[in-house]
Design brief:
By secondary structure, the chain is mostly helical. 67% of the residues lie in helices and 0% in strands. Helix 2 (45-56) packs antiparallel against helix 3 (60-70).
């Protein structure tokens, strides 16, 4: 009918077979339901404080590198986290990491000279704004001095 020699016939059948297999694979992938659930970017408050210090010093790119390396996140996630910190937002810390009474961890941060990490911890765990968290940390500092 088509006057094809045996080699051309085999090649034509192979091509048709590949097209059929490709269509099946495409149809199976197309019919799958994909569910995307965005996960919050959990970042320890110590790393957030370090990155925030770099942002305040005008070293935004270095802050992104710190977030990428120390928080072990992808480049786009580190960039998004740095932008959030620059806007004054706070990233969530890992759930269940801190005790109910935050006096101990805050005191340890203050003893290590990490005041910003202490403030970030209070903001994260107590859901307070920056001013209220600063006042809370100051009250702990005054309580220790007295």
């Amino acid at each position: 009918m088509f006057d094809l020699d045996p080699v051309k016939s085999i090649l034509a059948l192979a091509l048709i077979g590949l097209v059929v297999l490709g269509l099946r694979a495409w149809r199976q992938r197309r019919n799958r339901v994909r569910i995307y659930i965005p996960m919050p970017l959990f970042t320890p408050v110590e790393i957030q404080a370090k990155a925030h210090d770099l942002i305040e010093a005008g070293q935004f790119d270095d802050a992104v590198k710190v977030l990428k390396k120390e928080a072990q996140v992808s480049g786009p996630d580190a960039l998004a986290a740095a932008r959030a910190l620059r806007r004054g937002e706070l990233l969530p810390d890992f759930p269940g990491r801190w005790p109910e009474d935050l006096t101990g961890p805050v005191t340890e941060f203050l003893a290590e000279g990490q005041r910003k990490a202490a403030v970030f911890l209070i903001r994260d765990q107590k859901q307070l704004g920056p001013t209220e968290a600063e006042a809370f940390v100051d009250s702990l500092t005054r309580g220790k001095a007295e």
